[in-house]
Amino acid sequence: MLATVDALLPLSLLEAVRDVDTPEGVLEAEFVDELRNKRLGLSDTVYTQIKRYTESVRRNQRTAQDEAIALARLIGRRPDAEAVLRAAGRFLAREAYLTVSPVTRGLLRFLPSLVARPMAFRRIRRIAQRYLNANVRRVGTYILLEVPRSVTLGVAPGSAGCAFYESTLRELLRLLVGSTGAVEHTRCEGRGEGSCEWRADWRGATGANA
Question: Burial of 13 by CB count in 10 Å (0-12 exposed, 13-18 middle, 19+ buried)?
Answer without folding.
Answer: buried
